[in-house]
Amino acid sequence: MSKIFTDFNIGNSLPELCRKLFTEQKRNWPQLALACEGLAATRLREIDCGYRVFLQHNPQRAVNSGAALDAESIRNRPCFLCAANQPEEQRGILYRNEYLILCNPAPVFPGHLTIVHVNHQPQLLTDSIMPLLHLARDLAPDYCVFYNGPACGASAPDHLHFQAIPVNSLPVENLPDKYLGEAGEYSAVKIIRGVNLDRALVIMESANPEALRRQLLILMAKATSLAGVVKEPKLNVIAIQEKLISRLIIFFRSKHRPDAFFQEDDGRIFVSPGSVDMGGFIITPRENDFQRLAGDDIRKIYREVSVTPDLLNKILEARGADNGFSQRHY
């Protein structure tokens, strides 16, 4: 049976198609219906870290948060994003003949989508920035779209995919001015560095998506060189379309999981940060983590998994450290 619920044609409302997809899938896919009921029962805590952070107690995210991401484990499991291995009842929206938009079976927010490439290919952003921006534009104004790098949040690093959640779900989408450093503008792209957030955060905005793509590639190339890696640096990217402006929120990462993730017994903190967590909405599958984590714990995790302020300075030197990017603090 075909996995296609419907096909997206330019001119149609993609958010409306996604709402229809969810209605159909909850009716015909019992696993998704149960997951949505479970989401309605999740609890939230707001934490004051000097900035806003929310904790969500979401036990059904335990599999994603604890996924084994070493090469051998990935080789030895079927790819759950490939159509042949998806649940029989799962259907999606065919997007530009390249991606299938699916309902996420372990949602963090109502309407949570997973957007998978129709072919099995590695999770790499270099050649996929324009699809990310196109998705953000076509899903506006209802959704933002995000990318988790293969080594910092993607539970399927062997299969190219994005995710989409309702816009304004994350505190980082609406930062007060006190968290935004000075801005520089390069080739029609405004670049802003986040400050006082304990994260290596860069915001890029432009009315020209191609210029935005080029500037992101410049920063990624610099970060790749500094990290001494071959393909791409560790990063998370959130894309939002705001009227005529394309906006990217980028977190440059030093590692995926904090050391406490690998500790035993009471010392373990079962938090595995991806785009959502870095955006200020931290998923805690375990009750004890949800109850005990405090502002200092969150700040420590963010600092540990982010590149240092000095390294972020060097990344931004690719666009001009003398134009407001020389702050030595987060």
Question: What this model shows, in words?
Answer:
There is one protein chain. With 330 residues, the protein is of the alpha+beta class. The chain has one domain (4-257, 305-316): 2-Layer Sandwich (HIT family, subunit A), CATH 3.30.428. It contains 10 helices and 14 strands. It has helices spanning 14-28, 30-40, 62-65, 71-75, 129-139, 209-227, 275-278, 287-292, 295-305, 309-316, and strands spanning 4-7, 43-48, 52-57, 92-95, 99-103, 113-117, 143-148, 161-166, 180-186, 189-194, 201-206, 235-242, 245-252, 281-284. Helix 1 (14-28) crosses helix 2 and helix 6 crosses helix 10. The chain is globular and about 50 Å long. The termini are far apart. Mean pLDDT is 92; it is low at 320-328.
CATH class: Alpha Beta
What is the C-alpha radius of gyration, as a whole number of Å?
A: 19 Å
Low-confidence stretches: 320-328
Backbone shape? globular
Helix content: 25-40%
Beta-strand residue percentage: 15-25%
| Overall tally of structural domains | 1
What is the terminal-to-terminal distance? 51 Å
Task: Tally the helices.
Answer: 10
Secondary-structure-derived class: alpha+beta
Q: Say what oligomer this is.
A: single chain
The CATH superfamily is: ATP adenylyltransferase
**How would you write the strand order of the largest sheet?**
1-4-5-6-8-7-12-13-11-10-9
CATH topology grouping = HIT family, subunit A
Mean pLDDT across residues: 92
Largest sheet: 11 strands, mixed
Task: List strands and helices in order, with pairings.
Blueprint: E1 4-7, H1 14-28, H2 30-40, E2 43-48, E3 52-57, H3 62-65, H4 71-75, E4 92-95, E5 99-103, E6 113-117, H5 129-139, E7 143-148, E8 161-166, E9 180-186, E10 189-194, E11 201-206, H6 209-227, E12 235-242, E13 245-252, H7 275-278, E14 281-284, H8 287-292, H9 295-305, H10 309-316
Parallel strand pairs: 1-4, 3-14
Antiparallel strand pairs: 2-3, 4-5, 5-6, 6-8, 7-8, 7-12, 9-10, 10-11, 11-13, 12-13
Helix pairs in contact: 1-2, 6-10
